[in-house]
Design goal:
This protein is α/β, with parallel strands linked by helices and 502 residues long. Helix content is 48%, strand content 14%. Among the domains are: 139 residues, Rossmann fold, CATH 3.40.50; 200 residues, Glycogen Phosphorylase B (Rossmann fold, 3-Layer(aba) Sandwich), CATH 3.40.50.2000. A 7-stranded parallel β-sheet has the order 3-2-1-4-5-8-9, with helices on both faces. It has a 6-stranded parallel β-sheet with strand order 12-11-10-13-14-15, sandwiched between helices. It is globular.
Length: 502
């Protein structure tokens, strides 16, 4: 009878989700938690009040639907580290002058989360962001599996290890000479200038990356916002490289947000506070006539680059929406340029500027959108793929140059704007892409022609594959069900071990 009761208890799976404090990390992991809850798993997201504000409406909505999901909120220790500007999320507004205090606060927060986890009597699995390597130790203390979530592509995670192993970039003379990435089923060429700094020379950040990779190897497995028809060729490479299991359960934004209310409540989008004008503007445009331009939550450009983008968009024959993260430097003598530009675009009804957060899902799903200019952040790529949009790739930092290779060289669903230099997220870098190159890339994606039509056709086909992946019998659906089944089986074994005194 006791064994039977443990079998019943094993079915009641409780999983803790711990996102990293950056919007591009938080949203996909929260959506994964929502998927687990959608399938009956008791899901708790542990974060700070400031970060919870990004997604809490979605959680409340799911809870009211009867799904077993909640948020456990901890207070960010801003006062203890004397942060004058209270911020809890890495983005373009994170004050670099107080970065050390910010980091100190996160170390203190780690202890708070660890104490919560160790005090929980009922936790069967920890799913944590790659940037929380310490959770593998906590999971070990609890005798439960840790699943690592990587907000990047499977390809880029494998590429990091291949570069570390083969170091082909050291064999070229110039930073701009091409070399081949060794060990992949598809041929890829890159230049050394497109690689992260920590790959090219020893650094403290390189040591941090090594620690993250070591913790990933010690985890039970990894989950990705991806699907087999997209990155299936690299799943086996990941398993071999890290020696763990690997599940693609994406596109998570498509799966978790199927109602209009889900899309409206996602992230910081507030349709009731001004976005109705945006949607009205979009609805007035012809199908495939608008290019969407966005560079994510962590990127800012210098005034010189903003001016080049503005001139390219104004010269283009297409309407546009541009999500701008403003950083005008008065010393460069361009005060008021963006304001004047926005005024002209409003007057001729050609463009719509959004300052800050944009309701991206609602925008991309609108029939007026015909393409996107993107920094190649993984979440944005997945959201573009699920609606079948061709892309203009403009990678800037992190794993984005790797992601560009999938878009351009493998899937052939976009064109490159020609960016050549990787930069740190908090730096402008020295490269300025000229307006002529930007306008040319937009034209290749948006205008009628053989190349454009083929890209659009391939994008639409991949969109259909994405939709099938999350249906019963699809690859992502099967992966999620398999993972949940395995976690229940591990819990059953653990309970039996306790029962039998093992």
């Amino acid at each position: 009878m006791a064994i039977q009761s443990h079998e019943a208890e094993a079915k009641n799976l409780k999983v803790i989700f711990i996102p990293f404090s950056a919007t591009s990390h938080i949203i996909p992991l929260v959506e994964m938690a929502r998927l687990f809850a959608m399938h009956g798993v008791d899901s708790t997201i542990v974060t700070t009040a400031g970060n919870a504000g990004i997604f809490q409406k979605s959680i409340d909505h799911d809870f009211n639907r009867g799904r077993p999901i909640k948020t456990h909120v901890l207070e960010f220790p801003a006062k203890q580290v004397n942060l004058s500007v209270v911020t809890e999320t890495f983005n373009t507004d994170t004050p670099l002058t107080e970065a050390a205090k910010f980091q100190e606060g996160f170390v203190m927060l780690q202890s708070l989360i660890e104490n919560y986890l160790l005090g929980e009597l009922e936790v069967d699995c920890i799913v944590s962001d790659l940037c929380h390597p310490w959770t593998v130790e906590v999971a070990s203390k609890l005798g439960i599996p840790r699943i690592v979530f990587s907000p990047a592509s499977i390809f880029s995670r494998c590429a990091e290890l291949l570069f570390e192993k083969h170091r082909a970039h050291n064999e070229v003379e110039s930073d701009y000479d091409k070399f081949t990435i060794v060990g992949f089923p598809h041929k890829f060429e890159m230049s050394r200038s497109q690689l992260p700094d920590w790959m090219k020379k020893p650094s403290m950040y390189g040591m941090i990356i090594k620690a993250l990779n070591d913790s990933a190897r010690r985890s039970y497995g990894a989950i990705f916002n991806s699907f087999s028809d997209f990155e299936g060729a690299y799943e086996e490479h990941y398993k071999n490289a890290f020696g763990t299991k690997c599940w693609g359960i994406g596109p998570v934004s498509l799966w978790a947000n199927q109602d209009v209310s889900d899309k409206e409540e996602r992230g910081e989008a507030k349709v009731e506070e001004g976005n109705s004008d945006l949607l009205k503007w979009l609805h007035s445009k012809k199908e495939n006539s608008v290019i969407y331009v966005s560079f994510g939550s962590l990127n800012k450009f210098p005034p010189s680059q903003l001016i080049e983008i503005a001139h390219a968009l104004e010269a283009s024959s297409h309407n546009f929406i541009w999500v701008v993260r403003k950083n005008i430097n008065e010393k460069e003598g361009d005060e008021g340029f963006m304001e004047e530009f926005e005024k002209r675009m409003k007057e001729n009804n050609k463009g719509y500027l959004i300052w800050g957060w944009a309701p991206q899902m609602l925008i991309l799903e609108n029939k007026a959108i015909g393409g996107i200019v993107t920094h190649c952040g993984w979440s944005t790529i997945m959201e573009s793929i699920k609606v079948g949009l061709p892309m203009v790739s403009w990678p800037l930092f992190a794993d984005q140059f790797f992601n560009e290779k999938i878009i351009i060289d493998v899937l052939r669903i976009g064109v490159s704007v020609g960016a050549k230099e990787w930069r740190n997220w908090n730096e402008f870098g020295s490269e300025v892409v000229k307006r002529e190159e930007i306008e040319k890339a937009i034209a290749l994606v948006m205008e009628n022609g053989k190349e454009s039509e083929e890209m659009r056709s391939r994008s639409k086909a991949l969109s259909e594959d994405a939709k099938k992946a999350i249906l019963v019998g699809g690859s992502s659906h099967a992966n999620l069900m398999q993972l949940i089944h395995e976690l229940k089986s591990l819990k059953h074994q653990r309970l039996n071990g306790v029962l039998l005194g093992q």
